[in-house]
Amino acid sequence: MIFDPLYWLFAIPPLLFGLWAQWRVQSAVTRFSRVPNQEGLTGAQVARALLDSEGLQNVQIEPIRGVLSDHYDPRAKVLRLSEPVYSVPSVAAAGIAAHVMGHALQDAQRYAPLALRSAMVPTVRFGSWLGPLIFIAGLFLHLTKLAWVGLLLFAAVAVFTIVTLPVEFDASRRAKQLLHSRGLLNPNELRGVDAVLDAAALTYVAAAAQAISSVLFYFTLLGRRRN
Predict the structure, then answer these.
(1) Which of 29, 141, 181, 222 has the most other CB atoms within 10 Å of its CB?
(2) What whole-number distance in Å separates Cα of residue 1 and Cα of residue 113?
(3) d(CA 150, CA 215)
């Protein structure tokens, strides 16, 4: 399929957008990781202060290896912060930690899109690798119904990326609001947080664009085969 010119028509625009989004977030994180915050608070300390202020003392914080591997585990009730965030008192670390804490607050308040995304995880894990395989098998074996099954499985991945958007945008909104209301960062530092979190949001938009583009390409292939 990669030799089909139509593939490149669908693949190149979201790919270029994704590369640009990755560059934006890496640039913003690198820049503001070098800027210390006024209170000298590490990412872990920022997250702990915000969690406690919202009555979430039961949520634990753990370091995790990697870069931008920060996430919230709703099953274990644990914030896992990457090494450059957990122990570094930078503007970027404060913003990222606050964003991850936003997911814990969503979980505590039973934010519907987060619950929906969590419920979709098993299907997405299954469909992300098996869906394309089933689709290709159905396409080359001329089994249209099988190809449709593969397409629907992979379409679940696209739906997942769309559901992820309000979850991530809302977590960033909560992070900015809490950092401001708790007075942990000054206005200049909050602008740095805006730059980091807004750039990170673009990566989720890019992921959604890539997944939707793939589904549209598969759908177009099936339409051409049917004709």
Answers:
(1) 29
(2) 34
(3) 10
CA distance 89 to 5: 49
Chain-centre distance of CA 76, in angstroms?
19
Answer whether residue 171 shows pLDDT above 60: yes
- With beta carbons less than 8 A apart as the criterion, state whether 114 and 107 touch: yes
Provide the 8-state DSSP code for 82.
E
Phi-psi region of 66 (alpha: psi -120 to 50; beta: other; left: phi over 0): left
Query: 67: phi > 0 → left, psi -120 to 50 → alpha, else beta; which?
Result: beta
Mean pLDDT, rounded, of the chain? 93
- For helices 112-140 and 91-108, angle between their N-to-C axes, nearest 10 degrees: 90
The candidate with the shortest Cα–Cα distance to 189, out of 47, 31, 20, 21, is 31
Cβ count within 10 A of residue 186: 14
The CA-based angle 18-107-77, given to 5 degrees, is 95
**Sheet strands (E) in 116-226:** none
Write down the pTM of the prediction. 0.90
Q: How crowded is the C-beta side of 74, counted as CA atoms within 13 Å? A: 17
Please state the rounded mean pLDDT for residues 2-20.
86
d(CA 14, CA 169): 20
pLDDT at site 139: 84
Q: Order of strands across the sheet with 78-82?
A: 60-64, 78-82, 71-73
Domains of the chain, residue spans: 5-36+91-96+110-226
